């Protein structure tokens, strides 16, 4: 409890590591609370990443995160592998408490905890994650060129993914558990008018099937009749929404109706001075590794400006 640091970064995905690189190069020696189980965020569970600039032949998600981690540590970022239990952010000196019992204090905090994809929790989903089951059409759609694809969801994201995937798949079937969609009218119209998309309502996924190596089909169930049938599918894209990892904040920051941290305009400032947010936990729209890294850069620069203002106030 005695040491007061300049900045603590909560989270270790592209946003957290990028912020650490910038702050480390500025000589601020950031502390990164990277997480106990999955440091590196969602990309640690991603296989081939082909759309991150600088890797013309693609890069494995874990390799990309490991490289970002090494780069942050090169500039004296300190990593702690623990999860944050609670925070106290209202005072000038912020307090962060970890599950393991350690307590850290700092003048500034960046929250970069990301979000996680809402799962269907059906047989085969976990087994075939990365082997046909995907949660990101822009990341993985290319791999299913000329193959049958199933998209699960009823919101704008599901409609957008189905439209995007219709450029690649031999067929695209959109499944929704109700007969009414959450999506906007324009997205519904575009989907219904797309001849490459077949829409099945009142339908849920009962299981995702494969040969042990890759997805081969999906068993679906009619919610009204209980009847089941099997659809050929090599790609299953689950667009049931994302859940921002912000519950640990305990109301310390302003969140939107879906739990995302609210930031000021194009910056990263939150409603609490000295607290900044970057990456997917503050981005309900784009949620890409490259956009997360960009906000990590912004957060680092915003922190430097904030710390300079504190120093000026102390000298006044």
Automatic annotation (TrEMBL):
<feature type="domain" description="FAD/NAD(P)-binding">
    <location>
        <begin position="6"/>
        <end position="296"/>
    </location>
</feature>
<dbReference type="InterPro" id="IPR023753">
    <property type="entry name" value="FAD/NAD-binding_dom"/>
</dbReference>
<protein>
    <recommendedName>
        <fullName>Thioredoxin reductase</fullName>
        <ecNumber>1.8.1.9</ecNumber>
    </recommendedName>
</protein>
<keyword id="KW-0560">Oxidoreductase</keyword>
<dbReference type="InterPro" id="IPR005982">
    <property type="entry name" value="Thioredox_Rdtase"/>
</dbReference>
<keyword id="KW-0285">Flavoprotein</keyword>
<dbReference type="InterPro" id="IPR036188">
    <property type="entry name" value="FAD/NAD-bd_sf"/>
</dbReference>
<dbReference type="InterPro" id="IPR050097">
    <property type="entry name" value="Ferredoxin-NADP_redctase_2"/>
</dbReference>
<dbReference type="GO" id="GO:0019430">
    <property type="term" value="P:removal of superoxide radicals"/>
</dbReference>
<keyword id="KW-0676">Redox-active center</keyword>
<dbReference type="InterPro" id="IPR008255">
    <property type="entry name" value="Pyr_nucl-diS_OxRdtase_2_AS"/>
</dbReference>
<comment type="subunit">
    <text>Homodimer.</text>
</comment>
<keyword id="KW-0521">NADP</keyword>
<dbReference type="GO" id="GO:0005737">
    <property type="term" value="C:cytoplasm"/>
</dbReference>
<keyword id="KW-0274">FAD</keyword>
<dbReference type="GO" id="GO:0004791">
    <property type="term" value="F:thioredoxin-disulfide reductase (NADPH) activity"/>
</dbReference>
<keyword id="KW-1015">Disulfide bond</keyword>
<dbReference type="Pfam" id="PF07992">
    <property type="entry name" value="Pyr_redox_2"/>
</dbReference>
<comment type="similarity">
    <text>Belongs to the class-II pyridine nucleotide-disulfide oxidoreductase family.</text>
</comment>
């Amino acid at each position: 409890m005695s040491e007061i640091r300049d900045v603590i970064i909560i989270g270790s995905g592209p946003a957290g590591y990028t912020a650490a690189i910038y702050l480390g190069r500025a000589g601020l020696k950031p502390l990164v609370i990277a997480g106990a189980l999955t440091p590196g965020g969602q990309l640690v569970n991603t296989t081939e990443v082909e759309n991150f600039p600088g890797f013309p032949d693609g890069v494995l998600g874990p390799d990309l995160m490991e490289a970002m981690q090494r780069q942050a540590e090169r500039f004296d970022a300190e990593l702690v592998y623990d999860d944050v239990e609670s925070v106290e952010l209202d005072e000038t000196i912020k307090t962060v408490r970890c599950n393991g019992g350690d307590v850290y204090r700092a003048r500034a905090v960046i929250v970069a905890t990301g979000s996680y994809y809402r799962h269907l929790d059906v047989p085969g989903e976990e087994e075939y994650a990365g082997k046909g089951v995907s949660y990101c059409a822009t990341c993985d759609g290319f791999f299913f060129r000329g193959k049958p694809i199933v998209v699960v969801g009823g919101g704008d994201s599901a409609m957008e993914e189905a439209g995007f995937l219709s450029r690649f798949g031999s067929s695209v079937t959109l499944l929704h558990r109700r007969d009414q969609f959450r999506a906007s009218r324009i997205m519904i119209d575009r989907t219904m008018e797309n001849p490459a998309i077949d829409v099945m309502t009142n339908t849920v996924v009962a299981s995702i099937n494969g040969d042990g190596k890759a997805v081969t089909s999906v068993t679906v169930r009619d919610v009204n009749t209980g009847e089941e049938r099997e659809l050929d599918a090599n790609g299953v894209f689950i667009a049931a929404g994302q859940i921002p990892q912000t519950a640990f904040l305990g109301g310390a920051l302003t969140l939107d109706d879906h739990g995302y941290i609210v930031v000021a305009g194009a910056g990263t400032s939150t409603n609490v001075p000295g607290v900044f947010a970057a990456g997917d936990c503050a981005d309900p729209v784009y949620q890409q590794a490259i956009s997360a890294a960009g906000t990590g850069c912004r957060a680092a620069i915003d922190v430097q400006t904030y710390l300079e203002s504190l120093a000026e106030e102390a000298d006044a």
